[in-house]
Amino acid sequence: MAVKNPYTISFGKIPNKYVNRTAVIDSIIEEFDSDRPDEQVYKLTGIRGTGKTVTLTAIEQYFRDEEDWIVIDIPSRADITTELVARLYSQVPFITKFVDASLNLSAFGIGVSISEKSPVASINYALEVLIEEVKKRHKKVLITIDEAQKTKSMVEFIQEFQILIRKDLPLYLILAGLYEDIESLENADGLTFLLRATKYEMTPLNITYIRDDYQKTLEISYEEAEKMAYITKGYAYAYQTLGKFMWDSKGKELTEDVLRKMDDMLSDKVYKKIWSELAPNDKLFLRFIAQKDSMPVNELLELTHKNHSDWSVPRQRLSEKGIIDTQNRGIVAIRLPRFKEFIDAQLI
């Protein structure tokens, strides 16, 4: 029987082999598990393919195994509060019994109609009553929302969430989303509380860990593993993709065929979407930046025949999207692996 490939290119699924973000995961778990947590909301952000969903899933799995926790995963485009109440009713037996016996949620299509009780008119009130019942049972509720975006329902839910935690109710929230989506939520009117919540950026994975994993898992030389690790630039999806195709090749040395397959996958699953969302001016600058591992800004402006004023807005947009690195003053570099090859293909 053939050994299954330990790497995966399916978004959101925890692979058999992956470099997890232990520091982020442990920090959130430790805070939520404490008797008097200082934080009840966390945000995970980063560009596509950096491991936000995998990190979120790992945290979910930990708390699902804890008896005193109830974990509810909500789609970002749902009517958040109504969906949360409905899932509490359908997934938590003691909530189901409580609603059927004491609360008429028929106005929201939830539970059975209780003729002697008037239907609850406010879904926010219903949620508060349910979380109070959860508290009486000495349990806590973790809500996770992946691909979080600014919608009317999301803003209203976060505003209500703030009210509930002020009442010392055991409600916890983790939002995961792209840079621009999380930032849009943070800057929404009435969500200053969310802006103050801790945000973890899915920064590049540790190159040393990737190298050691490749060497052990693929049974290749230290030098070959190190070369592959540097090609990924610590980008989580590239690490999985390169590992998968190298495993499939059954070779001990990286080949152009493996790189081509990696390029095709990155292009189809990530880069085309990123490229389509960029402004024309952003693409113009990227075509030049990608030609080198890093480039002085003065050289970039000379090549593009632009000035600092022309560059300031694209610089901010590309940096916020996680495409370029501007941490070194006066220097700009592409954060995405083999993005030059992708851009060259677009130009052709």
What features would you describe in this structure?
54% of the residues lie in helices and 10% in strands. The protein has a 5-stranded parallel β-sheet, sandwiched between helices. The protein has a 3-stranded antiparallel β-sheet with strand order 6-8-7. It folds into 3 domains: 22-201, Rossmann fold; 212-269, no CATH class; 278-347, Winged helix-like DNA-binding domain superfamily/Winged helix DNA-binding domain (Arc Repressor Mutant, subunit A, Orthogonal Bundle), CATH 1.10.10.10. The chain starts with 21 loop residues before the first helix and ends with a helix. The longest helix has 21 residues, at 256-276. By secondary structure, the chain is an alpha/beta fold. It contains 16 helices and 8 strands. Helix 1 runs parallel beside helix 2 (52-64) and helix 9 packs across helix 10 (222-232).
CATH topology of the largest domain, anyone? Answer: Rossmann fold
| Count of DSSP strands | 8
Indicate the CATH architecture of the largest domain: 3-Layer(aba) Sandwich
Percentage of β-strand residues: 5-15%
Strand order of the largest sheet: 2-3-4-1-5
CATH superfamily of the largest domain: P-loop containing nucleotide triphosphate hydrolases
Order of helices and strands: HEHEHHHEHEHHEHHHHHEHHEEH
Kindly provide the radius of gyration, computed on alpha-carbon positions and rounded to a whole number of angstroms: 24 Å
Q: Describe the largest sheet.
A: 5 strands, parallel
- Helical element count? 16
For the record, the CATH class of the largest domain is Alpha Beta
Query: What oligomeric state do the depicted chains represent?
Result: single chain
Rounded average pLDDT: 91
The chain-level structural class is alpha/beta
| Fraction of helical residues | 40-55%
What is the number of independent domains? 3
Per the principal axes of the C-alpha atoms, what is the gross shape?
Answer: globular
